[in-house]
């Protein structure tokens, strides 16, 4: 059926009046559907997110061509505000090496935080230090590594194992190269031997 010119003009005018009303109804529907809880929106606050995130990181430090330390972490998050720091939320493992590349000591922690400008690393929640030279393994809750002073230390209680000897104490201190590690306040030593039954 062919519509006349006047019928087509009436339909066109009706469509022109209907179009803004439809757009208004659509905009209201879209805006009504955007209902966000402020707590959920604040979760995505860019100030709380890391400035940079690295997965499966491996970092080496060398001097005069000799690798002195090798750090491995599953994840590193870098924050610039409020303080320049790196967080190792999934832990870190550090190998301290001799000049020939053999392992001198090993440090592991389930969580760590590095304050970059102050050059301090704080390892916490199940820290393990192994000195391959003496055979000592030290178990601590927290450990601080002051890179400016070249010292690794803790004031927490600890347990150290060397062969068949367990030493309980408070405080640990070592130079960064693990040349002179020692327990500050020994509370006791247990010597044990496994027996065959």
Question: Major sheet, described briefly?
Answer: 10 strands, antiparallel
Uncertain parts: none
In N-to-C order, the SSE pattern is HHEEEEEEEEEE
Query: How many structurally independent domains?
Result: 2
CATH class call of the largest domain:
Mainly Beta
Spatial gap, N to C terminus? 106 Å
Q: Write down the CATH topology of the largest domain.
A: lipopolysaccharide transport protein A fold
Radius of gyration: 32 Å
Mean pLDDT: 81
Category by helix and strand content:
alpha+beta
Oligomeric state, counting identical vs distinct chains: single chain
The percentage of residues in β strands lies in: over 45%
CATH H-level homologous superfamily name of the largest domain: Lipopolysaccharide (LPS) transport protein A like domain
Number of helices: 2
Shape: elongated
State the helicity in percent bands: 10-25%
Question: What do these coordinates show?
Answer:
The protein has helices spanning about 5-35, 40-45, and strands at about 50-65, 65-80, 85-90, 90-95, 105-115, 120-130, 135-145, 150-160, 165-175, 180-190. It is built from 2 helices and 10 strands, in the order ααββββββββββ. The chain has about 200 residues and is of the alpha+beta class. The mean pLDDT is about 80. Strand 4 and strand 5 (about 105-115) form a beta hairpin. It folds into 2 domains: about 1-35; about 50-190, lipopolysaccharide transport protein A fold, CATH 2.60.450. The longest helix is centred in the N-terminal third of the chain and has 29 residues, at about 5-35.
């Amino acid at each position: 059926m062919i519509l006349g010119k006047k019928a087509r003009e009436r339909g066109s005018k009706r469509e022109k009046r209907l179009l803004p009303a439809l757009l208004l109804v659509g905009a209201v529907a879209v805006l009504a559907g955007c209902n966000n809880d402020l707590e959920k929106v604040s979760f995505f606050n860019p100030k709380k997110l890391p400035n940079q995130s690295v997965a499966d990181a491996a970092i080496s430090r060398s001097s005069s061509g000799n690798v002195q330390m090798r750090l491995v972490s599953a994840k590193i998050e870098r924050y610039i505000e409020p303080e320049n720091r790196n967080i190792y939320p999934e832990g870190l493992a550090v190998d301290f090496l001799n000049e020939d590349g053999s392992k001198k000591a090993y440090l592991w922690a389930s969580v760590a935080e590095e304050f970059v400008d102050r050059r301090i690393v704080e390892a916490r929640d199940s820290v393990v230090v192994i000195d391959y030279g003496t055979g000592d393994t030290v178990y601590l809750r927290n450990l601080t590594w002051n890179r400016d002073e070249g010292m690794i230390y803790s004031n927490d209680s600890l347990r150290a194992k060397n062969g068949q000897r367990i030493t309980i104490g408070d405080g640990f201190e070592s130079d960064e190269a693990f040349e002179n590690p020692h327990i500050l306040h020994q509370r006791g030593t247990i010597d044990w031997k496994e027996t065959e039954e």
